[in-house]
């Protein structure tokens, strides 16, 4: 699917459609509009897990930040969208740290602040018709939470020089010369452009043209081109603040510009991009009343890398700039858990409400797979085991025959009713099936009873017929070995699972040519223990107080000199950038060919 999405931080759950913008106030049940003309809805329809908390503060709090949803009872939790405002909701004065993931990909470790907003943003091409973003507990007694969520559709042409298999992680988005935040009322895609701080060496230019022509694929809002920063003279360059991490990472950068005045024949404004103080582009000339853009990509950089705009040698006017976007580029995105397995798991969740607390990608990232499954490794993992013993499942087993990689199914000690589904005997890789301790009835399907490769346990199902002629009791085990059965702990190297076979062990009595097997009883097994999770690091902390304007600035991680760096796990690229140009007002710089 080729839909682009702007995720102004997302926390977990899945949207069934991607053709509508949404802003979710986590922990709230109200719908309302804010001062930025953004419509907010409560999170009731998007998640059933976690606890809603209303912040108590003597200071005014922007309404979307006044509530949050906290997750205290599991290692992995889900929703969608995300600002993080701790606000000392638990009275412990201990802002938590936890991991953030989207669509099965590790994003970053969130480090919340006692009284400041923390937010993140990513742009990427979705590979399915849903989005999942997760917050995962990584430290003891540090419970993940989320304050608000926004999702925005982008045009498929936007940010088109990025690799569709990788995400753009926002580091900075700034508007030069404006005094107010530029967002939804001016930007159709509701990107948030934070005003740049004016230094002593800059002059604010205001365009003489009231209607700027913008025909760029990235669709920057016209409001950006009404004002610009320019240096006082041609010998002074504009240093571009990037907020990049200390570790070298792949970079994607957009520089926007437009001439502010009609120039006479003696005037010329010509710019060049400098990298480490050296000329790195051909000259480009801003056009009056028209938006222009330089895109820099396929280049690695870090916080020590210097980018600047300088006047060309023949320029009579100093350099100017209207706006800037800086992104880091993620590792290659995973395709997610195999779609057949996702379909099967969805069938189980639809049938059993207790399983609906789990969301997001079932297997990825690998340290955070759902507690009751095992998965293979790889970018498109398969589910190989279901550990649902003693899970409180009640009702009929749904059809999950699409999960063809299953090797173990443990459903013991629940309240399952009805007959044993035929499809369980047709799963090609199934080796162990534990149905003990339920209320199943009818006969065992021949596809199961005649499967000599399958270890089957059906003890303590009083209404289950173990043969076509005798239906009195099913307090038997069709295993070929005696003793008890136990499912053991999930994801441990040695599972104490002893399941039966369908092969008779001793021939005791011959009746009209038939043979009855002696079947040994087994003990019930316990529920599978949930696996532990790992850890990560890094955070962005904007400054200021939790007012509406601060939220918008924090959402973009762009406030100058107040955002902590984070370390991205990326592939470094070594060759130097080389300019590549189009004939229009949009230029593109990429690594040399």
TrEMBL record:
GO terms for cellular component: membrane. It is found in: Membrane. It holds the Pfam family Malectin_like. Residues 24-329 form the Malectin-like domain. It is a single-pass membrane protein. The keyword Repeat applies. Residues 1-20 form the signal peptide. Its main location: membrane. The keyword Transmembrane helix applies. Keywords: Leucine-rich repeat, Membrane, Receptor, Repeat, Signal, Transmembrane, Transmembrane helix. This is Malectin-like domain-containing protein. InterPro entries: Leu-rich_rpt_4 (IPR025875), LRR_dom_sf (IPR032675), Malectin-like_Carb-bd_dom (IPR024788). The chain crosses the membrane at residues 495-519. It comes from Gossypium darwinii. Residues 472-493, 574-593 are annotated as: Disordered.
């Amino acid at each position: 699917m080729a839909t682009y999405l702007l995720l102004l931080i997302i926390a977990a759950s899945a949207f069934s459609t991607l053709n509508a913008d949404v802003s979710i106030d986590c922990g709230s049940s109200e719908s309302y509009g804010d001062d930025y003309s953004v419509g907010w809805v409560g999170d009731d329809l998007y998640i059933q897990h976690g606890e809603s908390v209303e912040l108590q503060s003597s200071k005014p709090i922007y309404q979307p930040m006044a509530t949050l949803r906290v997750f205290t009872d599991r290692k992995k939790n889900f929703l969608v969208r995300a600002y993080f405002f701790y606000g000392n909701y638990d009275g412990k004065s201990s802002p938590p740290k936890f991991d953030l993931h989207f669509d099965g990909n590790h994003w970053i470790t969130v480090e919340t602040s006692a009284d400041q907003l923390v937010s993140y943003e990513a742009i990427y091409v979705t590979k399915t018709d849903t989005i999942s973003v997760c917050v995962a507990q990584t430290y003891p007694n540090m419970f993940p939470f989320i304050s608000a969520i926004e999702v925005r559709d982008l045009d498929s042409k936007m940010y088109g020089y990025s690799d569709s298999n990788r995400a753009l992680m926002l580091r900075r988005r700034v508007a030069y010369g404006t005094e107010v935040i530029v967002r939804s009322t001016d930007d159709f895609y509701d990107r948030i452009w934070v005003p740049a701080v004016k230094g002593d060496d800059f002059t604010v230019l205001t365009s003489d043209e009231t209607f700027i022509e913008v025909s760029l694929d990235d669709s920057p809002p016209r409001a950006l081109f009404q004002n610009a920063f320019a240096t006082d003279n041609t010998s002074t360059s504009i240093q571009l603040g990037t907020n990049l991490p200390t570790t070298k990472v792949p970079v994607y950068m957009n520089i926007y510009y437009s001439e502010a005045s009609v120039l006479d024949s003696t005037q010329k404004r010509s710019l060049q991009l400098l990298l480490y103080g050296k000329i790195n582009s051909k000259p480009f000339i801003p056009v009056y009343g028209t938006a222009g853009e330089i895109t820099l990509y396929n280049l690695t950089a870090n916080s020590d890398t210097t980018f600047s705009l300088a006047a060309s040698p023949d320029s009579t006017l100093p350099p100017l700039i209207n706006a800037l976007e800086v992104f880091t580029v993620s590792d290659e995105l995973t395709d997610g858990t195999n779609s057949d397995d996702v379909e099967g798991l969805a069938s189980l969740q639809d049938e059993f409400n207790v399983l609906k607390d789990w969301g997001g990608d079932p297997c990825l990232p690998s340290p955070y797979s759902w507690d009751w499954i095992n998965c293979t490794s790889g970018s498109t993992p398969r589910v190989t085991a279901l550990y649902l013993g003693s899970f409180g499942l009640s009702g009929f087993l749904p059809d999950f025959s699409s999960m063809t990689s299953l090797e173990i199914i443990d459903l013991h000690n629940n309240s399952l009713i009805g007959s044993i589904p035929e499809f369980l005997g047709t799963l090609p890789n199934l080796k162990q099936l534990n149905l003990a301790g339920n209320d199943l009835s009818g006969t065992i399907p021949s596809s199961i009873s005649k499967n000599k490769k399958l270890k089957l346990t059906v003890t303590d199902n009083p209404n289950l017929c173990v043969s076509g002629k005798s239906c009195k009791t099913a307090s038997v085990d069709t295993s070929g070995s005696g003793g008890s059965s136990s499912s053991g702990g999930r994801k441990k190297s040695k599972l104490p699972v002893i399941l039966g076979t369908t092969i008779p062990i001793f021939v005791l009595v011959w009746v009209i040519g038939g043979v009855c097997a002696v079947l040994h009883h087994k003990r019930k097994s316990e529920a599978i223990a949930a696996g532990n999770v790992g850890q990560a690091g890094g955070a962005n902390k904007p400054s200021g107080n939790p007012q509406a304007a601060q939220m918008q600035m924090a959402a973009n991680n762009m406030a100058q000199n107040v955002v902590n760096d984070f370390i991205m796990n990326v592939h470094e690229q070594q060759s130097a950038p080389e300019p590549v140009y189009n004939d229009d007002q949009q230029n593109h710089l990429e690594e040399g060919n």
